[in-house]
Every structure is written in structure tokens, then in C-alpha cells.
Amino acid sequence: MKFEFQNPTHLVFAAGALSRLGEVASAHGKRALLVTGGGSVKRSGVFDRAVSSLKLAGVSVVECSGIEPNPRISSVIRGAGIARSEKCDVVIALGGGSTMDASKVIAAAVLYEGDPWDMFLHGQENVHVPASALPVITVPTLAATGSEMNCGAVISNEESKVKSFIQANCLYPKVALVDPELTLTVPADHTAYGVCDIITHVTEGYFNGVEGTPLQDRFAEGVILTAMEWGKKAVADGSDIEARAQVQWASVVALNGWVQIGTDAAFPVHMIEHTLSALHDIAHGAGLAVVNPAWMRFAAKARPARFAQFAQRIFGVPARPGDELGCAIEGIERFEAFLASIGCPLRLSQLGIDAALLQQYAQDTLHIVHDDQGRLPGCPPMGESDIVDVLRSAL
Amino acid sequence: MKFEFQNPTHLVFAAGALSRLGEVASAHGKRALLVTGGGSVKRSGVFDRAVSSLKLAGVSVVECSGIEPNPRISSVIRGAGIARSEKCDVVIALGGGSTMDASKVIAAAVLYEGDPWDMFLHGQENVHVPASALPVITVPTLAATGSEMNCGAVISNEESKVKSFIQANCLYPKVALVDPELTLTVPADHTAYGVCDIITHVTEGYFNGVEGTPLQDRFAEGVILTAMEWGKKAVADGSDIEARAQVQWASVVALNGWVQIGTDAAFPVHMIEHTLSALHDIAHGAGLAVVNPAWMRFAAKARPARFAQFAQRIFGVPARPGDELGCAIEGIERFEAFLASIGCPLRLSQLGIDAALLQQYAQDTLHIVHDDQGRLPGCPPMGESDIVDVLRSAL
């Protein structure tokens, strides 16, 4: 085990914390670019409450609305343009993962003269990893992405149809203002997709990390068990603030680096799903619900002991001496049953995706990230035909 | 659940990381006060390796050795005097919890004109919580205290016989350079005391925190299970670097704030033990091994469900519907058996402590910290007679 870690984000977690936005933001700037997605924060009144809090604290507000799901580089360029011309000195993301991801990249793009797409890590040469960005404050309205307390972002290029990612220390939000009340209006389906996203963030490290991280294993299992227990309640009753808070908290933890620390994890399931949602406008968490179990059946053969541990510790499947793979498969089946029970899709057909482009999904995935043998990193690494096979098994 | 959290420490964790000390320190200062405890780091060659690394990176070294176990405020004053007269601009702690705690307070005391004891939180009025300190780098040589990545310190006043604590944001180390190789020479008994310290850091929050923190419960259980599994191996074979690394990592996590986050935990077992080790020069972890199980038997009556959860999840004790307390007690017995199995004491008599001063221990504890009804905070709060009873049960 060998690693470095530093997450400087100041986390403020409380029901009702939105009312502190102005106080929190005024420590970092006087003129905020307030970034939002669709109209839901306006319909719910959250936008107006945010603006009131900011103005009360003497922070003026410039609006950048309309960040789409699977946010586009063109939206980033538009937001950076507004921030620059309006001389904003702080970027506030009020929304879900798309809004937060776009906000981070806007904050870096404001200070970068070139094409912001240069900052992305999709296998190209001469990546310009940003060294500075405007301060960012994240106010998540959805429990899913974990973007609120990490330094990564995923953005799509609508021209090249590439969904790529960025990671840079300057993108850690100064403050993550996490108010579970803001998730009370999220509909059941997107609540469920969020739960799947949370779980998948930790299964990636759990199944694709190095051996010899027993404490991190326990942390990952803790996130999975908590997200399952409380996610089910949040889907069943969206007004259950206790369930919303627990799921929101699991979302923060699942991708702020604490759980994956030292695992040197790869994210093959995310990489494959990104390709799907770059070409089809599907919800990321729904895509993960389809890809993850299919990938698990593939990967379990290479690492049955680890998948058997998952089955035993998460679902209480009895150990089967001499048949670890059988135990592993039972765990995967139970995981699928859980996902189905909260309303997640399990087949590509449920997402409107058929077999026509399987090869292209595989090629696009490998185009974005591959090891020196051209394979998708993970345990085990995947060639093009492996990716096609996994997706075909999920048709 | 409602909390704020920020831990800015840069964690560098690797076997062999000591060789990077110079590189790491040179980013924070050019003249280091190198603080050490007894002579063990000199005998082992670790001191010389540290000095070499620092000099190679252009960092000059001023020595402050002889920080005693249960470090004294007079040592802090001595260290601050050296740092001031030698114009040190960074403080490096190379040692165990005592050395790291003293180093943090030295770093603050250098910048404070008054009596450093003013900065401590033992129920007195007009506490001077420090707002600034020299940068601190921690290099732990023992897996126990967790001081390497948090902003607290415990110091004894040899005149008043008070062992008090300090907590301030400026005391977060800039870097925690954690090299499990440095713990290879720790003898079996102190390895075991360290394991007990690690476990007790998380049981405090687990048993004395608020209700409704299921994810934090899982994290705490993860630390306990990992510390038990790998602690046993480290005690059995001190040269097992894998076991040393896992225990060291558990030590960092157990008190860097991640596990206790949002639990609003009290630390009654630590408070009672501090009184014992202020009056008797016993190892902190050994004192905890005696006090914690005795306290658990007392506290389980007030919170049997939580102790039954501990019994079930840590030791696999079967649930006993209708007899949660019975299940809880079985868990505590198994915990005692574990502590005994790694060589920890379980009775005060093993520490050379008899019944003569029980009343004084209780009064001293309550003098340092008490709620507005004069009780020691915890679940349940303890009056003087409760503390006496708990200690008497451990004679």
C-alpha cells in the first residue's frame, strides 16, 4: 500500500444548510457565477433561496443556467465566457453532477486562454492539466455523483461524441455545502439511479483495486450497505429526510477519495457507461445499473475470491469452499435483484439500446482510455471483444 | 446529522517514505526543529536517515530531543525556546504520539508570547485557542495515536498533575509522512497498546456519539476489525511489514476525523485514562485496555442495542431477541479476550494502581472536562461515583 492523499474541501453538511450559502460564498468572492441545470431549482424555489442568501451576504449573482445532463464542452465555454465578461470571482454549482462538473471546468476555463477541451484526459497528447481555477462552491441537489467533494469532472464533446474526464488539484471545491433537503424533490427513478451511481463508485475500487487493502474494503462495504439500506427507503418515500440525508452522505463519501485511497483503482464500468451516454442521452446511473452487473459476471471469473467476499459481506451469502465462483455469482444475482427492486434497468433494451453499435461502444471506450497493450484498465484488463461480450450479455 | 469537516493534511503513506522527508520539508521551511523522544530513533538509525534526507534537500536541522512519554508542558516550553532562538521555520516530529503532540504545541507556542498552558482546554476560562503555528510535519514511529493527521494534542502539566488537551485548526500537520517501516522495531507490548489505542479511538465515537450515523458505524467497525486482524499479526511477528502497514493505516484513519465525523462524540474513556497516566507514568494504550472494557460494562446498560450491534458485527455474536444486554456483555467479554490475547493488561493492579486514589482520579477527570451538571460527557454522562465504580470494577 503506497499512496498520497489530500482533500482540502471544507464540507458543510446539514439539512437547511442552503441558508448559509451567502455566508460561505462571501469568504471566497464578491461576484458569483451561479450555475444551474434545467429549471428544477427554479420551480422548487431553491434558486431564489440561493440568490437571496447570496445577496444578503453582499455577493452579487450572475446566472448561467441550462447545463444539460451529460454536460457539453460548449456549455463550459459559454459559462466561462459569461464569468469572464461579468468579472465573476467565484463559481457556485447549484445542481446535480452535470452542473457541478461543468462548474468546475468553467472555473478552470476562465483562467485558460486556449480551448478548454485541451484540459481533458482522453488519451491525447499534450494534455493541459489546469494549475489554477476560480474558487468553486458546490451545492448538490442530487445524491449520486460525489462531484461535490472531489477534483474530477466528466464532460462530453458534442462534435466528436467523446465523453472525457479531467482531474486536477485546483478543481477541489473550496466548500461543499451539502443540504439533503434539496434532494427531497428528486423523483424515485433518479433517486434510484443515484443510489446505483454511489454503489458503483465504490465497487470500481473494490473490484479493480490492488490486493491488500482490507480497511478500504470495509469502507467500501460500509458505503454499499448504507446506500442499499437507506436508498431503498429514499426511493420508497422521497419525503423521508433521514433517508435522503444518509444517501446524500454516502454519495459524498463514495467519491471524495477516502474509500478508494491507496487502491489504485481503475473505473472500467464508468468508462464503458460514458461511451453509452455520450452516444445516447441516458441517465448515467441507469447506464451503470446495466453495465455493472454484466461486467461483474465477466470479472468474477478472474477474481472469484474477491467477488465471493462481496457476496458474503454484503448479502450474507454463505461461503462455498471449493466453489468461490458460485458464491460470487449468487452475490451478483442478489445485487441485480436489489437494483431491480429500486427500479433500475438491468438490460440495454430498457435504455433503448440495441446491438447495432456494440463494436463502436467498445472502440470509443478504448479510444478514451487504454493501457500500453491497448486494453481498458481494470481487473482483468479488457480488450475490444471483452467489452463487446459484456455489452452483448446485457442486451 | 449535521457537521462541518475539513482536514487539510497532505498524507504521504509508503514503506520507505522516510527518504522523502527532505523533499517534503523543504516545501515548508529551510530550518527545521527536529523533535524526538527517547533515544530509540537514534539507536535505530532513523534519526540519522532523517537528518541526511533533510540536509540533502537543503534543510538545516536543530535538535530537540528527550520528549518524554506523557509529554510535559515544560518540554513544550523548552522546545519553543530552542525554535525561537534558532529561528526555525518548520517543526518536524519524529516519534510516537508524545513527540507529535509536543511538536504541534511547540509550533503554536513559538508564535505565542504568553504561557503555552493558556492554550489548553481543561475547563478553565479564557482559553487562548491558537490561531497560528509554524508548519508541522509528522513522521510517526508508532501506530497508535493518530496524532499524525489531526489537529489535537495532549500534554501534561507536571506541577498541577493535570493532563489536558488542545485542538486548533492551525495544528493540522502540513504533511503526515507515514512510513510503516519505522514501526518494525516497536516491541510487542507497545505494539499491542497501540492497537488498543486505535480501537479505543473509534469505540469512543461508536458508543458515545449521536444516533443515526449508520455509515460512520460501518467505518468504525471496519477500523476495529482491521486493527484486530492485523494487530494480532503485528504483535506475533514484529517484522511483518504487511501487518505493520495495515495497523499503521488503521491508526491514521482512526483519529483523522473521517470515522467520527458527524457523531459529535465524547471521549470519556480517554478522559479517565488521562487522569491515570497523569498521576502514574503508564502507557496510554495500556491504561485504555483496562478502562475501556470496564467502562463498556457500565455503559452497555444504558445503550444495550448499540453494544449488541458491536457484539454481532465485530465478533459475530448471535442476536438474542429479548436479551440485548446479554448479547452486549458477550461482545465485551470477547473484546477483553482479544485484548488479553495480544498481551494487554485488563486490571488496574497490572498497572501497579490500587484503590487508594479512586476518588481523586474521578475528581481530576471531572475537573478537566464536565457538562453543565458537573458530569463527564458521554453516553451516559458520568458522575463522580460512576467513575469510581467503573475504576473499582477494574482493580
Count of individual helical segments of chain A: 14
The residue ranges of chain A in which pLDDT falls below 50 over 5 or more consecutive positions are: none
> Total strand count of chain A, please?
8
Oligomeric description of these chains: homodimer
Task: Kindly name the structural category of chain A.
Answer: alpha/beta
Strand content of chain A: 5-15%
- Can you identify the CATH class of the largest domain in chain A? Mainly Alpha
For the biggest sheet of chain A, the summary is: 6 strands, parallel
**Rg of chain A, Cα atoms, Å:** 20 Å
Number of domains of chain A: 2
Tell me which protein chains meet in the greatest interface and how many residues each side has. Answer: A-B, 36 and 36 residues
Architecture per CATH nomenclature, i.e. the level-2 architecture of the largest domain in chain A:
Up-down Bundle
Shape of chain A: globular
How are the strands of the largest sheet of chain A arranged?
A: 1-8-5-4-2-3
Question: CATH fold name of the largest domain in chain A, please?
Answer: Dehydroquinate synthase-like, alpha domain
| Order of helical and strand elements of chain A | EHEHHEHEHEEEEHHHHHHHHH
Please estimate the helix content of chain A: 40-55%
